[in-house]
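dude i think i finally got it to work??
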Amino acid sequence: MQVALDDRDIRMLQILATEGRIAKTELARRVNLSATPCGERLKRLEQSGLITGYRAEVALARIAPHITVFVLVELEAHRADSFSLFERHIAGCDEVTSSWAIGGGFDYLLQVLTRDIASYQLLIDGLLEARIGLKRYFTYVVTKATKATAPPLALLLEPPTE
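look at this
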């Protein structure tokens, strides 16, 4: 369902995507509304499913050693039941923090967050032993995060240029 958004709604979503813990009064001030109408808009955005949750960005390096790994996955078979089996299994793997079905030669891109390479290898060994149709995989270890931002909502909502 498409939800009609005006400039204030978009601005609210942009602010919340980068500062989810902002006080409602401050959010209202920044979008030039009083608190009650701002709260009503916020509730409408939540109820419509445009805001799916709030979360904190955690400084993992200050908590525990870890690595981030991106994994390109190719499945043995390309049938609906093969994809479903793989996706159900991955949903239960806590170390897999994101998973995307992709086109272009591979079937999935996984983001894995785990303690170290040995833990990552245990995860991969478990995926191979689970017989979930994993044909081959390619591992890319993140050496440094260089950018992580909120989605560019205003840019995405601009009319296409000719």
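The chain has two domains: 7-56, 61-141.
im so relieved honestly
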